[in-house]
Each structure stands twice: as C-alpha cells, then as structure tokens.
Amino acid sequence: MTSNIDVRPSPIAGSWYSDDRITLYRQIEGFISEADIPELKAEVVGLIAPHAGYIYSGRTAAHAFKSVLQHEYELVAVLSPLHASHPAPLLTSAHQAYGTPLGIVEIDKEAIEALDQALRHSTGLSLMPVSNDGEHSLEIELPFLQYALSGNFKLLPLMIASAAPEQLEQLGAALAELLAPKRALLVASTDLSHFYPQATAEEFDRTMLAQIAALSPEGVLEAERQGTGFACGAKAVVTVLWAARELGATRVEILNHSDSAAASGDTSSVVGYGAAAILKDA
C-alpha cells in the first residue's frame, strides 16, 4: 500500500464506534472474548451481522465474527443497504480503499470490474461507483473483519439501493461465480425490526431469523412482503443467501439475537439485531 492511495475517510469513526485505534481494538477484543458460540464444524461461507453503533449491536455482531476468528480469506464481499436515496440500484466504492482506525482495507478493483462486466452481460445491471459516501452499514463491519481475520484480505463492497428481487437473484449468481475459485467470505449487513415495543419486535425478529435459518431468500422476501418480519438490509441478506446456496451452503446457524434495549434501557421502541453464520458441511 502506498501513501498516496485513494482512501475513503470514515464519516462514522468517533460516533458509531471509537476513532481511537487502541480503544476500538480493545472494545472489539472484549466483545469477541465474551461471545459464546457453538463449535460449527463446517466451512463458513458467509455471515449476517448487524450494523448499529457498537454500543448497541457490537456484542451481537461479535458472535458472527467470532465464527471466523483467525480464518484467512483473500476476498471478503460485504453487502449492505444504502440508507440514502440514489437512482442506481447497485453501488460500489470509487475509492481504492476504506480507512478505519485499525488501518486500511484495500478494495479489489479487479473483482469489482469482473462483477460489473458479468452483470452487464447477463442482466443489464451495472455497479455505480460513488465517492465519499456516508453509508455506515458497510463500513461498520470492517473493524470486526480487521480484528478477526488472519492475514490481509481485499474488499468487494456492494451497496444495494433499489434492485428488484429477480435482480438480487441474478446478483447472487454472479457473485457466486466470481467467488467460487477464491478463498472468499460473504457478509450481509442488516439490522432487524425497527422501533416496535420489545415483545412485538421479538415476534417479528423470530420470524425473520427463522427464514434466514432456513437458508431461504424466498422466505426473507415473503416475510417482508407480508409484514411478518423485517430487516433493513433484507436485500443484502437475500443476495448473500442466494450466492451462498450457489456456493454449496447447506445450513445457517443463528448465533445471537438481541435488541437496543440492552443498551438504552427503553423497551417501548427497540431495534433488533441478529448474528448468523452460513455454513457448508463437508
């Protein structure tokens, strides 16, 4: 990495998580240490992790990232929603790297170009590169990856704005084809239900997590359509589940579920968080 590389500066360090390298490292270290997950005995193809500020969802996120602790991947595809309005259905970063207090994560420009070409050829979709975006939900997964993974990895960042369900399936297939020859990890960034009383939120979250556990992108979309379960990053989750199935994933292990009341003390209006590992049995 050179000193003049084009790095996307973090717009959320110092608010959503600490902007101090040592403080951030120790916070993640503590979350990972506290996380209790079962022995998975399978290849981890993908993760589902929340994206609220670390004080709210960091402990839950740690369960997902603990499942890949000291694992080594050459490429990590992180898929997130886009919370801002944008006319393009699919976006990626125009920068060469993301910067966090833990260092720089290089973007795999060759992978982005290959995916863009595959999408243009098969679906007519394309990836819109954007600079200096303010999207928190993709970036916030990066310090956990920097802490957990062994060795260096490159990043394939994808933000999904308005892609239709059939386009998400096509994106999942194209992603799987790109990632199949590589040591790669999929990450879907999502929170669950938003601003319901805790008891109601738990019911909605239970429904959504059941569809995720069933490795069912169709079920996730149907829960959203029927209003029986919610995930702000549902499109990212759906795409990752489709890609994971194409890559041979056989099951999903739900590792943790929580909500914002644990940090805020307010049970009248909570946001739900879930962590899961997508697995491929031998």
Main β-sheet description: 9 strands, mixed
Write down the CATH topology: Protocatechuate 4,5-dioxygenase, Chain B
Q: Total domains, how many? A: 1
CATH H-level superfamily: LigB-like
Radius of gyration: 17 Å
- Unreliably modeled segments: none
Q: Report the sheet-strand fraction.
A: 15-25%
How much helical structure, as a percent, in the residues?
25-40%
Number of strands: 12
Please trace the helix and strand order, writing H or E for each element. EHEHEEEEHEHHEHEEHHHEHE
User: DSSP helix count?
Assistant: 10
User: Can you give the mean pLDDT?
Assistant: 96
Terminal Cα separation, in Å? 36 Å
Shape: globular
CATH architecture: 3-Layer(aba) Sandwich
Global structural class:
alpha/beta
- Name the CATH class: Alpha Beta
Walk me through what this model shows.
This protein has 282 residues and is an alpha/beta fold. It has a single domain, classed as LigB-like (Protocatechuate 4,5-dioxygenase, Chain B, 3-Layer(aba) Sandwich). It is 39% helix and 24% strand. It is built from 10 helices and 12 strands. The strands form 2 sheets. Strands 2, 3, 4, 7, 8, 9, 10, 11 and 12 form a 9-stranded mixed beta sheet that branches. A hairpin with a 2-residue loop joins strand 5 and strand 6. Helix 7 packs antiparallel against helix 8 and helix 8 packs antiparallel against helix 9. The chain is globular. 50% of the residues are buried. The model has no long low-confidence stretch (mean pLDDT 96).
